[in-house]
Design brief:
Length: about 300
């Protein structure tokens, strides 16, 4: 199990842009082992090099989901991990329940609803039957690992299937395939004091794209300011931004050290060039003096020529 966990940690660090030497340092393991695991992950199709010509080589996750236990966990307030809320899926009822579903019943606009609420380990789940044709499942809030944000929908399908299987077995019915009933939100607890002040002042701060479409927003959720979005790409950037910034800072520090070393080398070379230039000038002056001396000696010998 420890090997599996270590491999998963190597996978997480690798797709966050850390070089193998850094990963080995973080996990306090041999760099050769990290290199071997990286090759396994590439061979198994979980990661791929972004550009093999860079040093160090940078990797990114593929569309193949890395299998880990407890990919979705019960939501806890105050956590820094991405939180999924407003998770609602639907199933077409292929075979009506043979056992009466107990719950709240009501009719609105000629549509009959039945709500059954059940407590699971993750929290309360509401099963809503609409006209005996559709089952809508309201799932509790969940925590998702940052590296799995791009696979959130697949993870939700897997989790919802557990609830659907329970419902089918309990009420002896048959359901179709799961579908997203409404767009869920991916939320992050916001720590920035300025943004928190803006949220408290305006209630909600919306972020829009060039076509004025809302792509993310800041608002109050259960008394805590949060950054929320429906876009998995934006959520992934938000989740990994601190790590990317830290990685860039490390690389910038390394670059600054190299630049300082180059400046020292340039200064040393400049001094050497100055000394060499002075020696060359001295040699040129000596050469000029020698040429001038030879020229004078040649002019003096002409005065001794006899004139006939």
């Amino acid at each position: 199990m420890q090997v599996k966990n270590t491999k998963y940690k190597i996978y997480k660090y690798a797709i966050q842009g850390y070089p193998q030497s850094k990963i080995a340092s973080f996990l306090r393991i041999d760099k050769a082992y990290v290199n071997r695991v990286i090759k396994e992950l590439i061979r198994e199709g979980y990661i791929k090099p972004v550009c093999e010509n860079t040093k160090p080589i940078i990797y990114e996750a593929t569309n193949k989901l890395y299998p880990v236990d407890e990919k979705l966990t019960k939501s806890t307030s105050g956590g820094l991990s991405p939180r999924l809320n407003l998770i609602v899926l639907k199933y077409r009822i292929l075979k009506p329940p043979e056992v009466k579903v107990d719950g709240k019943e009501w009719v609105a606009n000629n549509t009959r609803f039945v709500d059954h609420r059940e407590l699971f380990d993750e929290g309360y789940v509401t099963f809503r039957i609409i006209n005996d044709k559709v089952l809508v499942v309201f799932m509790p809030e969940q925590i998702v690992d940052a590296v799995h944000i791009r696979h959130t929908r697949q993870l939700l399908y897997e989790k919802a299937q557990d609830y659907a299987n329970w419902f089918q077995k309990t009420y002896r019915c048959q359901l179709g395939l799961p579908e997203i009933y409404q767009d869920y939100h991916i939320a992050f607890l916001e720590k920035d004091p300025f943004l928190n002040q803006m949220v408290q002042k305006y209630g909600m701060v919306k972020l829009v794209d060039c076509e004025n479409r809302v792509i993310a927003w800041y608002d109050q959720s259960k008394g805590s300011p949060e950054f929320e979005t429906r876009d998995e790409r934006i959520a992934e950037i938000k989740a990994f931004l601190p790590v990317v910034v830290a990685n860039l800072e490390d690389r910038l520090f390394d670059f600054e050290n190299r630049l300082s070393a180059l400046e020292m080398l340039f200064s040393s070379v400049k001094d050497d060039i100055g000394v060499l230039s002075e020696r060359v000038e001295n040699s040129v002056r000596k050469l000029d003096a020698l040429i001038e001396s030879l020229s004078n000696a040649s002019s003096g010998s002409d005065s001794f020529i006899d004139v006939v």
